[in-house]
Input
Amino acid sequence: MINIIQQRLTSFYLFILIIFLLIVQPSFSNKIVDLIQTIRNKPTNDNRLKNNLVLEFRDVLQAIQDHLYNTSISTCLPDFQFYNGSCYLLSTNKSTWLSASNNCLKLRNSSLITFENYDELNFIVEKLLKPLRINQAFIGLNASDIGQWYWLNGRTFADTEFKDYFYSYRPDTSYCGLIKLVNNRTKVAIEGRDCFNDEERFICKYVQNHCSAKEQVCGKGGECMNVGSTYQCRCNFLYHGQKCEKFSSEAIQSIIALIIIILMGLIICILKFNICSQCKSKKKNHSIDDLYNEQQMILERHKNKKSMIN
Output
């Protein structure tokens, strides 16, 4: 009776799973159906076959999980383009820098783009600006009253590799950043514009996959996991910390224990070596004494023989 109930529950769960997969990915549901037909057509006493089917079923489920994970990670909002873990949008309308910043926030809490490296800058130029023949767009860069430029993520512009791209334009009124293609669209410049009056297109960015650069995010001691709009680092046994950047107390204890074991092993080896050396020395001395005694006995016998002859 219990086995019948278990079989019916299993069939019910599989039915729900297939309905879900028919919506998400039909190719996976076909594999599940084939597995179920195979299970029903085979005798129940074939344990080896059951184990093989269970392993195959797990492989299918893992493929489903990987597919859903990769699909959710690489899918951006409409009109956004995916690149290296992030999604980018070049606006179709023009607005002031302040309005552009607010408009980006409304799109999945994105922000005006702040460039992380040359590859990202090149992607924006080659995939967003040039194909649409757009020469300039607002970016996430602005200046303080004293003329110090900052990215929206807090980095100082002068401390980044893009400082050589900067071109001073109307410095008295320009406090918001803009990327511009110059010299017949062959070079890139970063300029300032009036935050309140100048209107341009703008580029929004949000991070879709925080784990695209796994080693940079969590280091070698952890595994990066996307959690909603952020990420978490799952540290292995040896590390801890928000980014798995520190040795854990268990790791330190293990290292100390290993050192103690190695030292004890060395001490035992040294003691054994000394004991063996002493044993060999005693045996050697004992052998010399025995040889000397034997020689003395031979000489003594020889003397006794001579005395008897005389």
